[in-house]
Amino acid sequence: MCYIVTMMNELDTFKEETAFRLFGRSRSLAIAGNQCVKCGAHELEFRDELSRKEHGISGFCQSCQDDIFGTDEEGKEEVLGTAHEIFGEGE
C-alpha cells in the first residue's frame, strides 16, 4: 500500500511540475477553481461526462481537449482510455 501512495504522489508531482513548465499554471489549482490549466478559461462547461472527468485529470477545458483529442467522440474515448491505462487513472 505504501508503494501505491508513493507512486501516486510522484505521479501527481510530475503532472503538477509539467503543467507549470508548459503552461505556467498549477494543474491542481486550475482543477479546484474550475479553470483550464492550458488557456486559463473560467466557468467551464463540458460536452459530456467523459470530458468533465478528463478535466479532473488533465485540467483542460472542453476547447483545449478538442484541440488535443479532436471532436470525434469515438476517437476521444479511445485516446483517453489508452492514456488512462498507461497512467493508471480510473474513472
Structural overview:
With 91 residues, the chain is mostly helical. It has one domain. The chain is built from five helices and no strands.
User: Number of helical segments?
Assistant: 5
- Biggest beta sheet summary: none
Specify the structural class.
Answer: mainly alpha
> Helix content range of the residues, please?
55-70%
Distance N to C terminus: 20 Å
Which whole number gives the mean pLDDT? 84
Gyration radius (Cα, Å) is 13 Å
The succession of helices and strands, N to C, reads HHHHH
The coarse overall form would be globular
Per DSSP, what share of the residues sits in E-state strands of 2 or more residues? under 5%
Report the count of strand segments: 0
List the uncertain runs. Answer: none
| Count of all domains | 1
What is the structure about, briefly put?
Helix content is 67%, strand content 0%. The chain is mainly α and 91 residues long. It has one domain (2-87).
Task: Present the secondary structure layout.
Elements: H1 2-23, H2 27-32, H3 49-58, H4 62-69, H5 73-87
Q: Which features characterize this protein?
A:
91 residues; 5 helices; mainly alpha; 0% strand; 67% helix
